[in-house]
Design goal:
It is a single chain. By secondary structure, this protein is mainly alpha-helical. It contains 14 helices and no strands.
Length: about 280
């Protein structure tokens, strides 16, 4: 028996603000936003495997994506413009912005396929706090290895299609709660030899289509009678404001610090989760 009672799956405005803050803080930090949202929903007494609650977590990600789009608006415009013009004019095809457009598209394919084919698994069995705990631990090892083995000597201009493919695979793996999409993509970027700032910016760019698609797909369920339009919009707005600040902070942080700094937090959180689950204080779903 869990020590936390499960109430109606209805998300009220307090829940919306709390979940928006958690989403905004954790979406782009390598600590797993889905894992933190799952834990927070459980602590709030929500049914984490309820379809409406699952949809709500996907929709408030749109606030974080809006923050990325605003923060990188000039870069995104340059990429979209160069990619579009490059379809018709050869002089644009060798430019980094044109190539970046293709890299984002290629990196989105694996996560799109994994999301469609594994939707039942992702929204069902994987929505377990046991999965979150062990994924937090397991990928922490990868983050440490990536920092130690990655050469980190390849700048943004050296990006290639193989980098996009590997980072796309990392995004697909990160559909498992606890891994962290940013943690996965940055780690793989480092293992590919990219410098830390380039790997982090690439993680931001490649998050846009994947998370936007997930949010739009779940839109109908999140605005259901169990959640409410006001609560959904509140969560999106709060996530946007918090995420914008988190993006600016992370870019400054990774310029001078290893992502392995986040590993102790991940490990401690995982061990606390395992303790609460083992004692029966918290139920897995």
């Amino acid at each position: 028996m869990s020590g936390f009672s499960v109430r109606s799956c209805r998300v009220d405005y307090f829940d919306a603000v709390v979940l928006g803050v958690v989403e905004g803080l954790t979406e782009f930090l390598p600590v797993s936003s889905t894992g933190h949202l799952t834990i927070t929903e459980k602590l709030l007494g929500l049914e984490v495997d309820d379809p409406a609650v699952t949809a709500y977590t996907a929709v408030i990600q749109m606030g974080a994506i809006a923050a990325v789009i605003l923060y990188f608006a000039r870069d995104i415009w340059n990429i979209v413009r160069a990619w579009t013009l490059g379809l018709f004019r050869s002089e644009y095809r060798g430019q980094l912005d044109h190539r970046m457009g293709w890299y984002v598209i290629v990196a989105t394919i694996p996560v799109g396929l994994a999301g469609l084919l594994g939707q039942g698994l992702i929204t069902g069995p994987l929505r377990s706090l046991w999965v979150v705990a062990f994924a937090l631990l397991g990928w922490s090892v990868v983050m440490v290895v990536a920092e130690r083995l990655g050469r980190q000597d390849r700048p943004e201009r050296d990006l290639g299609i193989k980098d996009a493919i590997w980072i796309g695979i990392a995004q697909a793996l990160a559909l498992m709660p606890g891994i962290s999409r940013s943690g996965a993509t940055i780690s793989v970027g480092l293992l590919r030899g990219l410098d830390r700032v380039t790997a982090t910016k690439l993680s931001f760019y490649m998050s846009i289509p994947a998370l936007l698609a997930a949010g739009l797909y779940q839109l109908k369920d999140a605005f259901s009678g169990d959640i409410g339009t006001g609560q959904a919009l509140t969560g999106v707005a709060v996530a946007f404001l918090v995420a914008y600040g988190a993006i600016a902070w992370l870019l400054r942080f990774v310029a001078h610090h290893s992502i392995a700094w986040f590993v102790p937090y991940r490990v401690v959180l995982a061990l606390i989760l395992i303790g609460l689950l083992t004692s029966g204080t918290l139920s897995p779903t």
